[in-house]
Amino acid sequence: MATYVVMEPPAGSNRADASLVRDSFTWLGFLVPPLWLAWRRLWIEAVLAFAVMAMLSVLGEKLGLEWAGSALSLLVSLYVGFEGQGLRMAALRRRGWREWGVVEANNLGDAEMRHALETDGVDEPPPMPRIVPDSNLARPAQTGMALGLTHTPGRS
Fold first, then answer.
1. Which residue did the predictor score with more confidence, 25 or 151?
2. What pTM did the predictor assign?
């Protein structure tokens, strides 16, 4: 069974459906990291992966160690393969999405069905009102003993 992380869109957006991200190794992210990252709209990560892979390749050719440049590029591919879905979830969080929870299923269709069944009869509670403290009700400054290297009132 695979694990899917359910990401819900921000409250003010016009998008109503959630995004399910499979928490697993990404084969396409391993084989073609910059293309997979660009396909998932992770532009900065795609440019960074391409730049690092190109730099390692050029550095390997300059030093006469082509195999070392390829081996180090393989490390970038492994990183995107293992952490690609985590990068995708982090990008969604930066855009205001929040994690609803985790769903286990055999495939994406089953995961969407389980998520729909779990959220079908659940009404989301209204957001809590924002409480702004009143400065008139604040505690007065303490005038007793103080710990540390601060000044103790009443002593010189």
1. 25
2. 0.68
